[in-house]
From TrEMBL:
GO terms for biological process: potassium ion transport. This is TrkA family potassium uptake protein. PANTHER family: KTR SYSTEM POTASSIUM UPTAKE PROTEIN C, POTASSIUM CHANNEL PROTEIN 2-RELATED-RELATED. It holds the Pfam family TrkA_N. Residues 6-121 form the RCK N-terminal domain.
Length: 219
């Protein structure tokens, strides 16, 4: 199987970062922007970078979009350009479109147009920060639907097995993996360790209703 290919249109902070991360993670990226400087800035860190105004149907039709599994439209601040680009891409047969939006009106418009994934980075980050602000030990959190989430927790205070068991067992948190302070990756395990030390990290599957209990778990 060949490399997965995606295209990113709009190389602001969001688009450029997404393009570079995807390329660094093994995806072949075409980066597109109407601004020459933005294209030159990213040229060395993606597969290909081209200057094009994607509100122009001629520019859209000059590219074979069928080669891309996903096209990301990351034109946030100009809703008209974002919308025209999406419409032209849909007319060119692009099926999987992601779109970065700046506000709820932009989001509603993109949903109405049938865009598969509508991304509102500021709002999503603010929600995430709001959820975790009480939990300074929570490094990362991934929501799994409405009821569950996976959290990466940094251990601050030494805890022995009985302390871990009482916190996890009582509070409906399931241990998934442990990374010791000296290790570079997590080891999958559901078995409780004899001890957790400051600097160790754990991955835990939790019920959202039990989220507040992390406060007591960590203190
Ligand atoms: P950021 O991602 O930096 O948070 P943003 O989403 O508001 O901000 P913009 O400032 O809108 O990003 O920049 C998006 C990029 O889209 C800019 O580099 C701009 O040149 C590019 N862009 C705007 N219109 C078009 C277009 N018609 N075709 C191609 N690129 C475009």
């Amino acid at each position: 199987m060949g490399k997965q290919r995606i295209a990113v249109i709009g190389l602001g902070r969001f688009g450029a970062t997404l393009a570079q991360e995807a390329q660094a993670n093994g995806v072949e990226v075409l980066a597109v922007d109407s601004n020459e400087t933005k294209v030159n800035d990213i040229a060395d860190s993606v597969g290909e970078a081209i200057i094009a105004d994607c509100t122009d149907p001629k520019a859209i039709n000059a590219i074979d979009w069928q080669q891309f599994s996903t096209v990301v439209v990351a034109i946030g601040s100009d809703i008209k350009n974002s919308m025209m680009t999406v419409i032209h891409l849909q007319e060119a047969g692009v099926r999987t479109l992601w779109c970065k939006v700046q506000d709820k009106y932009h989001a509603a418009l993109m949903s109405r147009l049938g865009v598969q994934k509508v991304i509102s980075p500021e709002e999503e980050m603010a929600r995430r920060a709001g959820r975790t602000i009480h939990f300074p030990d929570m490094m990362q959190q991934m929501l799994l639907g409405a009821d569950q989430f996976v959290a990466e927790i940094q251990i601050i205070n030494r805890m022995d097995r009985s302390a871990i068991a009482s916190k996890l067992g009582r509070k409906h948190h399931q241990l998934l993996a442990i990374k010791r302070k000296t290790e570079s990756s997590f080891t999958q395990t559901t078995a409780l360790p004899d001890c957790l030390y400051p600097g160790d990290r754990i991955l835990v599957l939790s019920q959202s209703s039990a989220e507040a209990s992390w406060l007591s778990f960590m203190s």
